[in-house]
Amino acid sequence: MEDILNKAKLWLSPTFDKETQDEINHLITSDSNDLADRFYKDAEFGTGGMRGIMGAGTNRINKYTLGKATQGLSNYLHVSYPNQDIKVAIAYDCRHNSKKFATLVAEILSANNIKSFVFEDLRPTPELSFTVNHLNCHAGIVLTASHNPPEYNGYKVYWTDGGQIVPPQDQAIISEVNSLDYKDIKFTKNEKLISYIGSELDEAFWNASIANGTFNVQGREDLKIVFTSLHGTSIKLIPEVLKRAGYTNVHVVEEQAEPNGDFPTVDSPNPEEPAALAMAMEYAEKMNADIVIGTDPDSDRLGIAVRDLNGDIKLLNGNQTMSVMTDFLIKQWKKQGKLNGKQFVGSTIVSTNLVNDIAASYDVETKVGLTGFKWIAKMIKDHPELDFIGGGEESFGFMVGDFVRDKDAVTSTLLACEIAADAKSNGSSFYKELLNIYVNNRFYKEHLVSLVKKGMDGAAEIKQMMIDLRNNPLAEIDGEKVTFVNDYKTSVRKNIITGEESTIDIPKSNVLVYETEKGTKVACRPSGTEPKIKFYISVQDDLDSIENTDKVEKLLDERISRIQTQLEV
């Protein structure tokens, strides 16, 4: 505790402003338990940026931790682009202090002789990615904590291609940030290097979104849509892009339309949580809507609910929506005669293998990377000889084409409506299209378990859980022999039956994936953005007809339940 107290006292020096000193002094004098959590470690500028609880301290998001990150980025930009007029685009979401932090970041960049283009008001993250390319910027920054609770904020960095930073830039920037002291931050702004952007970029983004996310489908005016922005940024773009695309029957959940960093109508603004879309789904039942769409605060994730075979509104998971979207996109490319063996789709190691099966059925390659869309963006950058069709991950994100290099709930919303309108006009539905995919391939059922482990003790517990899983690997899962263990931390894929080992040719990450003889998959990893450890369970079976859906799904649900019991999660 003495070390923590000494670290805290450093924040009482003249390097820090009076407001910060007062906050720290209060914590010290009141002997607050919160002091340890604020100083037991430094808020890490990780491989995509940083995210955390706001407040004073080394393990918090504040003007100094963000300032150090921005100073390090500025130094690296000057090394990377010597003697150039460097440009950076900046966006921010609806969270508390996001606008203030965006202004701070722009000022620090300007103090380092870097020009910034700051959005005049909150905007979705995918528009920031688009803007980096559209304005030929060298980098981009968005102030957001995505779907985290209200007390969080964060900082994501994008590179010249519009994708989040990846090797070698990420480690180089991290090294630069870690080499700095708080006194090295340049706060003296140069107003001449700060410009503001707005509707002109919206117009460009809307046009690009419609160009990439619409197809020659019928029935747009007949599709009844309920949309909620969950108090976030998507209200700025999605209603208008739907209107411009020809969707006239759109009903916004007004109680959730006003951007608000407190997210007052939900416990969590995460469309992965069924409760987040409860209000919209109730509204859809009253309106007899065909589809419900909700997005997270920075509008990169979307949740979709559609009517099932009984006519009830059913929330789909991210694996299901990415499967339907992938299948539809590839069909459109085939219809247009654009498939020639030089296309690919992107996925991740914890997402459903159904996407791989769908792509293979059209002779399209699936490239699989680590969790996070920066790796899908890297696939596009690394393979200019191939056309990118689309890509997704289980955590409710999807990207249509390569005009945006991050998950994009704006264009994905448009795509989902295109699928639903097309299906409805042909006597089908979004849900029936999913079931047809199961019949044509296999019925995959996935389930995610997230265990929250907060603070210092929680971090230690998560670390120990991963150690135990490595030291005591599972030999069987629900009575099925484990055939392969994929350890992405050591980059080793081991055949448990033969003992043969091979190298995993993607970057290292703290992830374990088990595969069984019958295709069951269990993955586990600590979250990179929240105090959680996650378990991803995937089971599968044949589905010979849509009529047998309930029977097969019941069997798959029972298998998932038994696996959860076995794993004690």
From TrEMBL:
GO terms for molecular function: magnesium ion binding; phosphopentomutase activity. GO terms for biological process: carbohydrate metabolic process; purine ribonucleoside salvage. The keyword Metal-binding applies. It comes from Tenacibaculum skagerrakense. Keywords: Isomerase, Magnesium, Metal-binding, Phosphoprotein. Gene3D superfamilies: Alpha-D-Glucose-1,6-Bisphosphate, subunit A, domain 3 (3.40.120.10), Alpha-D-phosphohexomutase, C-terminal domain (3.30.310.50). Pfam families: PGM_PMM_I (PF02878), PGM_PMM_II (PF02879), PGM_PMM_III (PF02880). Residues 44-181, 218-305, 317-436 form the Alpha-D-phosphohexomutase alpha/beta/alpha domain. Its cofactor is Mg(2+). Transmembrane segments: none annotated. This is Phosphoglucomutase. PANTHER family: PHOSPHOGLUCOMUTASE 2B-RELATED, PHOSPHOMANNOMUTASE 45A. Belongs to the phosphohexose mutase family. InterPro entries: A-D-PHexomutase_a/b/a-I (IPR005844), A-D-PHexomutase_a/b/a-I/II/III (IPR016055), A-D-PHexomutase_a/b/a-II (IPR005845), A-D-PHexomutase_a/b/a-III (IPR005846), A-D-PHexomutase_C_sf (IPR036900), A-D-PHexomutase_CS (IPR016066), Alpha-D-phosphohexomutase_SF (IPR005841).
